[in-house]
Amino acid sequence: MVNILVVGSGGREHALSWKLSQSNKVETVYTAPGNGGTENNIPIDVTDLDGLAEFAQKNNCFTVVGPEDPLASGIVDKFNKLNLKVFGPSQAAAQLESSKIWAKNFMKRNDIPTAQFQIFDNAQKAIEYVKSIDFNVVVKADGLAAGKGVIVCNSVDDAISAIETILVKKTFGDAGNKIIVEERIDGIEASYIALSDGNVALPMASSQDHKRVFDDDKGPNTGGMGAYSPTPIVTDVLAKTIQKEVIEKTIHAMKNEGISFKGFLYAGIMIKDNKPYVLEYNVRMGDPECQPITMRMDFDLYDYFTASVDGTLSSLPPLSWKDQYAVCVVLASDGYPGSYPKNEEITGFDSISNGTNVFHAGTKKSDGKVLSNGGRVLGVTSLGDTLDSAINNAYSEIKKINWPNKIYRTDIGKKGLSYF
Ligand code: AMP
Ligand code: GLY
What's the CATH number of domain 122-177, 3.30.1490.20, 2.30.110.10, 3.40.630.30, 3.30.465.10? Predict the structure, then answer.
């Protein structure tokens, strides 16, 4: 039996902890720092790599890293040096997410489909460029900006103001020392996530996120307001194309460049005219995509995590998935992704039905009560035999959970319904 340390505090980490605790090889799952829903919380921040290593060593843990920040800071390299088992990509592999410029150049030299782009560190030159072209652009800060460093533009004026926001006003700090100006592709977005051991990559079930805060994709981008799996948008044919042209090409090209990619590889895909384009890579599970995907897993996740670390994924049986849909509706606090109130009591957990999991994100426990403690607060995730029934189940369950400033989108999964 092994102990697990899940690093992180979001809905993704609650879902991973929940799934890993079902393995008969797993003794105790610790979460650092965790949230109001996770058990065995350890008060160590995700950036305190020394503290995490010390805990993992003392408690003989296999460590699973949820978010990108510790991966980009080299948690995996550090743990490997100490001979601690850890699931996730190395710092070099994490560049696919931590530097958008590195990722774009990598895609270009390896012929991986992505939008055409230019790189700038000088605002005047970037402005001259956007004035000289006849297509809309997306302006992206190079570094990690908590999912906020991407500005989708509808006009040259928008593009100029985005360039100034990132390069001149430095709204995202040093993450915006350089920018990418890339062609805007208007299509349908999906998340394609695979699990790799550096040699092969096993596709996770398909999923679709809902990034904007309001219904009908209105309002600012967020970390994700809901997700469902599988999505009919990713047809079998498209899935095969993405697997071959994006995922396998990426893993093999990384290997050829001397970097073994182990862990979850997430490609944010835009589908246009039936062709996939990579908008971004993430080097971790998506949040909230992880919540519906883990609900559908019919396998021991711990086995696959150890095989990813050991480079033995090809010796395991194919992944099997529940033949059901799962829908996660994020309950957030009014104001998110801007500022929002905290410390409001949340009620109604006791009346949740079977087939639904309430994954916690921004919550904490205090005196036996659950209090709101973040922008995205809960991810109510329900199974159903059809997409329609999974949506109905999730929306009837969320009525049971309340706090004063609860908000949510009412159209999670709706885009998928139009495919049936
Ligand atoms: P990223 O963090 O790079 O995935 O960008 C955040 C969001 O911006 C994506 O989920 C898309 O909705 C949008 N986006 C990014 N790049 C493009 C692009 N080239 N064309 C259209 N939309 C984009
Ligand atoms: N849901 C998008 C992300 O995890 O980046």
Answer: 3.30.1490.20
Residue 285 contacts residue 359 (beta carbons within 8 Å):
no
- The Cα 14–Cα 268 span in angstroms is 22
pTM of the entire predicted model = 0.95
Q: Would you state the pLDDT for residue 76? A: 98
CA dist., res. 131 & res. 134, Å (int): 8
- Give the mutation target among 12, 13, 204, 209 for probing the ligand 2 site: most ligand atoms within 8 A of CB: 209
Please check whether residue 246 is in contact with residue 278, taking contact to mean a CB–CB distance below 8 angstroms.
yes
CATH tag, 325-417: 3.90.600.10
User: Which ligand has an atom closest to residue 104 CA?
Assistant: 1
Distance 224 CA to ligand 2 centre (A): 6
Task: Please determine, looking at this structure, whether the domain spanning 2-88 carries the CATH number 3.40.50.10310.
Answer: no
The model's pLDDT over 333-360, given as tens digits with 9 standing for 90+, comes to 999 999 999 999 999 999 999 999 999 9
Q: Whose CA is nearest to atom 6 of ligand 1?
A: 150
Terminal Cα-to-Cα distance of the chain (whole angstroms)? 45
Identify the DSSP state of 114: B
- Which residues of the chain form CATH 3.30.1490.20? 122-177
